[in-house]
Amino acid sequence: MRRIPEKPRKLRYIPIGYKLMLSYMIFIVILVSVNGYVTNSMYDASMRQQTRTTIQAAITQIKDNVSYKTDDMIRISSLLYDDYNLVRNLKSRETGRDQYYRMAQLIAPKLDSASKSIGFSQRLFVYFHNETIDEVYQTRVDGDPALLEQTYDIYHLSRIRDQEWYKNFPKEEYSVTMQWKQVEKDGAENRISLIRRIVDTSNPLKLKELGIMRFSVRLKDLFESVDYAKLGEGSMLSVMSEKGNVIYTSGASEGNLIDSESLKNDYIKIEEKMGRQEWTIVAHVPVTIIAQEAQKVRTFIISVCVLCFILFTFAGIFISRYFSIRITKFVSVLNAFREGDLHKRIAYRGKDEFSQIATALNGMGEDVEALINKVYLTQLQKKEAELEMLQLQINPHFLYNTLSSINRLAKFGENEKLQKMVVQLGKFYRLTLNSGRTLIPIISEIEQSNAYLDIQKVKYGQRLEVLFDIDANIWPYETIKLILQPFIENVLKHAWWGDRIHIRIVARKEGNDILYRIIDDGMGIKRKRFGEIFAPAGEAETGYGIRNIDERIKLQYGAEYGVSIVSRPGIGTTVQIRIPAKKRKLYPREHSSAI
Q: Which end of the chain, N or C, is surrounded by fewer C-beta atoms within 10 Å?
């Protein structure tokens, strides 16, 4: 028999849908796993870092509060330390009527004032070498020590001469030597004392001790802000001396357990040094608070990852089958668009959604360039409209205030001042209108501010003094109009500290920028108002005019320019305005005037 040859076998291959699905599954497994692991790790690290940062900020605030109180006590003690009249009377050894006058009129009032000048309860004890000064001490009523707060006692130094705390007191260094220490009954009454000498400085090379002053304050008053509740349940706050001794503790009573080796890993420990007192604020926060939150997040992330894996798997099966045949055509066109070739087209037959996509892609290639240009022009127009709107919001405010002043002058019959104010108002608005231009020469802005101040001088007279400090090199440059006057108006409205006020207006060219400064010696701005002044529009009414000018400058020149303010209450305020140095354009009218 003849052998019949076998038919050749067809080569088997994996369809593109299965290839897509296999690649998709590998990608999803890796992506979901890595994303879950990285997300959990980052969140855990972020929580720990955020917790540490929050705790550090809380401890810093606590330290500042304690430092404020200790600095206040040091300040009051320095008033006695540097009081020459007190020192002179402590050296005197007068008797009789002179001794009574010295005590009643000179020494006692100073000590009484010092004992009551601190904003919280404390006692003042002074020990003098001069025994011609009578001892004065308060008698405790009903055994209640609180009734002796903000009082002073005078003793002879012989009472403490043999005390260890006195004998071990450091050698005097002018205006530096002082100690915070628990002495006498401080330990029993939960108090601590600030101890300083009173010295004779007539010979600076040899300071002579005249006495000892001791300000004794309750620990709970001094460390009122050291509260563990600010850090969370189970936390502990401690104030440690430079020798490592615990001065004050708030929180868990098991402070010794927290420092044991077995529990060190269960707490976050953060320390904050204090300056002159050489104390350390130590915080212990249990990590269980973070661990509980981290476990919840970990469970949630795992659940989301499993759910995403299931959903992505089914979506991958469907998408790989549906798009494997069609996707390559669209990819080629999209790649061409991505590379900037907007002329490539796709030929697709059918009546399904892919046909609509093909039509849309073909149309998009024709329209996208025109659309980009249109959007760009629209954004420019929007920016100019916003700039004009912000500018127009300033003038009505000033006009209202000026007309109110004119009305007041007319009511009181002050015609000369009324006429002068109307003339200056007309000059101000002639400069303000400026043919409707937003950008004007700097000289016009300075003249405009001067016109405004002339109006105000009619109102305030000699109470207002103004100094213009202008660099002549800035005249060739231009500026946004009406950015100086609102700040001058703010000074006259909010900064009065006494009967007179001085304003200095500075304009300089520094590098490639123009800097304006409006400086006054008024009452200044409190720190808490700075956040309100620069709050986003709509969140606060305070500082509307300042935000208005800052937004105008940023819209015109960019975010790196604008308004900044430096102020110290009781000293004054400096407003700085920064704009780029741009040469001004000469308009036809300016050309003709120049000719």
A: N
